[in-house]
Write a structure and sequence with these properties.
By secondary structure, this protein is α/β, with parallel strands linked by helices. It folds into 2 domains: about 70 residues, no CATH class; about 290 residues, TIM Barrel (Alpha-Beta Barrel). It is built from 14 helices and 10 strands. It has an 8-stranded parallel sheet with strand order 3-4-5-6-7-8-9-10. The protein has a two-stranded antiparallel sheet with strand order 1-2. A hairpin with a 5-residue loop joins strand 1 and strand 2. Helix 3 runs parallel beside helix 4 and helix 5 packs across helix 6. The chain binds NADP nicotinamide-adenine-dinucleotide phosphate. NADP nicotinamide-adenine-dinucleotide phosphate (NAP) binds next to helix 10.
């Protein structure tokens, strides 16, 4: 049986190899950046301990080389769940985010976008631990907010809540507060970068306060690798993208890549393109981001949506389709938030508890975290068992009859018995 299992796994690996090759046929452009910034961990010959990358392309997600030479997966999971941010819901929020993170990592995501003010870093940390994926293979982002003058404490708290000893990308979440406090926060980030506890530095929402952006660019010893902005087909942010990408070689990452689910799903342009490719509007929007050279971090609390959103690396939008989506841009009118930042703060961070009681998913039965026990849990379990060797999720439709049903379980057992 062992030999059979080995052969089966070898076959899975071979098919994965073939898949990875065919994925290269779908153009995502060459969005590598010019390396101008010192590597994290100091300017030593090998760039210091954290400059060594264990990040690999999984599930077809391309890597991008940032302006400090560090490689980052250019697609990730957004972990913010705004509907649960009320202080009384910390436990439920962190439990939910733990499930989202596990589902995402099992689906091939290797990039997680978090922030201290999402109040869910503890859930993310446990999700990473329980996913079975080594921490070094995951790109972990968090953001400092609140009292920027106290950034060192904020950063130490992030490490502790996430249960990690370095963070791949740290942003200043908002350019709120005095310019001096913003720069003081940046200095802490630079020191941690030099010490190898941060691998890339970022500015988030600085497109809404140019004086803060200019102040950082004028005074930073290590210039930003990343800029996070609101960006989606209804607010394509061409000015901000040009400023960052063309003038400063900074990689743009998009928050609300799906417009927080506010884009009309019946939008004729996107709907028609979705029909032409046999995909959902969500997949079309995310594929558009990828072909634009952007880094989207879609959020979802639904395991099926999480898997659907990353399943966009086996087709390509034509030039005409890309142009059609570009034409639905509404400029600033399409934005959800357009806050003007200034010398005001976001208040102080309130630490919280998360009473984590780990029950392995296979004991609860809800393996795929979709809130119910169904056939997807069986394929989810097989997916989980194969997670060490596979690079993409096992398809739920094992017998390829167009739907997920009990026939998939018997088909799978049949395959196992015959191997
Ligand atoms: N830097 C900043 O200031 C900032 C600000 C906002 C957000 N962010 C980041 O951006 C991330 C993404 O933002 P977001 O999650 O609010 O908005 P989003 O990714 O644009 O959209 C998420 C919404 O779309 C739905 N959705 C996702 N995939 C779907 C699918 N395949 N089918 C149907 N519905 C789908 C989700 O519902 P379900 O849960 O039902 O799937 C959810 O309601 C955040 O998590 C955070 O990391 C950063």
């Amino acid at each position: 049986m062992k030999t059979r299992l080995f052969m089966m796994l070898a076959a899975v690996l071979l098919s994965i190899g073939a898949m990875a090759q065919s994925e290269n046929n779908y153009a995502l452009g060459n969005f590598d950046h010019v390396v101008t910034q010192p590597a994290p961990g100091g300017n030593t010959a090998d760039g210091g301990p954290q400059a060594v990358s264990n990040i690999r392309s999984v599930a077809g997600v391309p890597l991008v080389r940032l302006n400090n030479g560090v490689m980052m997966p250019r697609f990730g999971l957004g972990t913010q769940v705004q509907s649960m941010e009320n202080a009384s819901m910390r436990q439920q929020l962190n439990e939910t985010v733990r499930g989202m993170v596990i589902a995402a990592l099992q689906s091939g995501y290797r990039h997680l976008d978090d922030a201290m003010f999402y109040y869910n870093e503890r859930g993310t940390g446990w999700g990473i631990k329980e996913s079975g994926i080594p921490r070094e293979q995951i790109w972990v982002t968090s953001k400092i907010s609140g009292n920027l003058a106290d950034a060192q404490n904020a950063f130490n708290g992030m490490l502790q809540r996430l249960q990690v000893d370095y963070i791949d990308l740290v942003y200043i979440h908002h350019p709120a507060g005095t310019l001096q406090d913003i720069l003081a926060c940046w200095r802490v980030m630079e020191a941690e970068y030099k010490a190898g506890r941060i691998r890339a530095l970022g500015i988030s929402n600085f497109d809404n306060r140019m004086e803060a952006f200019n102040y950082i660019m004028d005074n930073a010893e290590i210039k930003p690798q990343m800029a996070q902005i609101e960006c989606h087909p209804l607010a394509q942010r061409t000015d901000a993208r040009e400023l960052y990408a063309n003038n400063y070689d900074i990689q743009v990452e998009c928050w609300y890549p799906l417009n927080h689910n506010r884009t009309d799903p019946n939008n004729t342009t996107i709907q028609q393109i979705a029909q032409a490719h046999g995909r959902t509007v969500y997949q079309i929007i995310l594929r558009w981001h990828m072909q634009e050279g952007l880094c989207p971090v879609p959020g979802s609390t639904n395991a099926a949506h999480i898997a659907e959103n990353i399943n966009i690396f086996d087709f390509e939008l034509t030039d005409e389709e890309m142009a059609a989506i570009r034409a639905i841009d509404r400029g600033d009118a399409g934005r959800s938030f357009n806050l003007q930042y200034g010398n005001w703060g976001f208040g102080n961070f309130q630490d919280y508890n998360y009473n984590h009681t780990f029950t392995p998913a296979y004991l609860t039965g809800d393996v795929n975290f979709d809130g119910e026990i169904n056939i997807g849990d069986v394929t989810g379990l097989i997916d989980f068992l194969l997670s060490d060797v596979r690079m993409a999720p096992v398809p739920a439709d094992v017998n390829e009859d167009g739907e997920t049903n009990i026939g998939d379980v018997t088909a799978l057992i049949d395959i196992l018995l015959r191997s």
